[in-house]
Amino acid sequence: MLGLLCGVLAPHFLRLLAASRKRFSLLPLPLPIRLALGGLIVGVISIWWPEVWGNGYEVVNSLLHQPWTSTALLTVLVFKIIATAATAGSGAVGGIFTPTLFVGAVLGCLFGIATHTIWPHSTSAPYAYAMVGMGAFLAAATHAPLMAILMIFEMTLSYQAVLPLMLSCVVAYFIARASEQTSMYEVTLRRTREEKERLRLAATQMRELVRPADTVVPLTANVKEMTRVFLEYPVKYLYVIDDIGHFRGVVALQNITFDLLDDRGCDKKTAADYLQPHFDALMPDMALGEALQHFLAFQGERLPVIENNAQPLLLGVVYKTSLLNAYFRLNRSPAADL
């Protein structure tokens, strides 16, 4: 029963921590202020219940050697969970391994008190349930029952508790695994990977998103040649380069279409006659945010990337979809997927 209880509650504990991180991340406050807010919450709680402060080893040791009332256990459990959520959510440095042991020990002790009240002559002392509760809750949170069994046994060296510890850890693991596929270590690793990805994307420049430009024509291209390119690629602009490969501007499909419809004798015209020399372009070292502003002002699906020097060189194009994909990944909340 204790393994079942821990297997059900451990995933909710992890979800609470994830929800706290998400709530703190949504606050329009810089990281130092969020850290101060989390510390303030823990500090206020610690004024009345100093047991929630620190890693909780003193409380766990006390549970294994001294009797606690159920009221005191419930109170310290609630405040410890709130303090842990505030600490983890604000982004403070620290783990959730020892709080997991703390919560498991208190849950086990409460379960032991309840069973001892119902069956006073056929149950063990509450401290034995505290040992089993630590292991079961840890196994459910980490999805590592063997590690939990070995660690709790090494901590307590109690041979009498080995069998119920093993049974509770295995039950808690399977119940938690069925409820939540991700353990707390997997959550941490995923968050670390996401943060590294965000940092990488924040430094992303347009040279990393550039793709080859297929719709390029020379200045001497006639209308027939340009029309063939427009028919082959669904674009509104062709990029024009001179004889030595320097970018000169663009030719708009609209201008050629008007001449063809009005029969203005465009057979002898070339790309130089339709050239628009002033066209919005991106630089290879331009950041994501700046490039996005160019796309917001330009209602198109792609923009050329030009090497900014005395003789501009067309490096390729950046597509709006590539830019938006990178931008959304950069601005996605790390806790959004938890």
TrEMBL record:
One of its GO terms (cellular component) is plasma membrane. Keywords: Chloride, Chloride channel, Ion channel, Ion transport, Membrane, Transmembrane, Transmembrane helix, Transport. It is a multi-pass membrane protein. Coiled coil: none annotated. SUPFAM superfamilies: CBS-domain pair (SSF54631), Clc chloride channel (SSF81340). This is Voltage-gated ClC-type chloride channel ClcB. The lineage of its organism: Bacteria, Pseudomonadati, Pseudomonadota, Betaproteobacteria, Burkholderiales. The chain crosses the membrane at residues 29-49, 70-90, 96-115, 127-153, 159-176. Pfam families: Voltage_CLC. It is found in: Membrane. It comes from the Bacteria. GO terms for molecular function: chloride channel activity. The keyword rRNA processing does not apply. InterPro entries: CBS_dom_sf (IPR046342), Cl-channel_core (IPR014743), ClC (IPR001807), ClC-type_chloride_channel (IPR050368). The keyword Transport applies.
